[in-house]
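Async update (no meeting this week)

Hi team, since we skipped the sync, here's where things stand on the single-chain job. The sequence we agreed to prioritize is pasted below, unchanged from the tracker. I ran it this morning and attached the output directly underneath so nobody has to dig for it. Comments welcome in thread, and please keep replies under the output.
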Amino acid sequence: MKRQDRNTIRDLMGQGPAASFPYGVWTTATGRQVIYDRRYRPVWQRDSATGPARPADPGEWVAGIVERRWFYDGCVAFADRPALFTPELEAWGIPA
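Output:
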């Protein structure tokens, strides 16, 4: 399954390595928000805090980051991570 084909939380969780799990959110100077994975690759994006989510280009270098937020740190057990990022994805309207 290609990254672009991961349309639901369940798809993300079924992909195995923790590196593919959502890790945090960047906010840029323009208000754009980008969810990124443990490898700091963009996964989802939206133009504003209330805009609709759409897949991001995993190869993009996101410029103008003014805020960084993480869903969890490396001390959180693999099995516990989905409980920390799933509410954020649901708030973005990414289906379970």
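Quick observations from my side:
Helices lie at 9-13, 81-91.
The chain has a mean pLDDT of 85.
Reply here if anything looks off.
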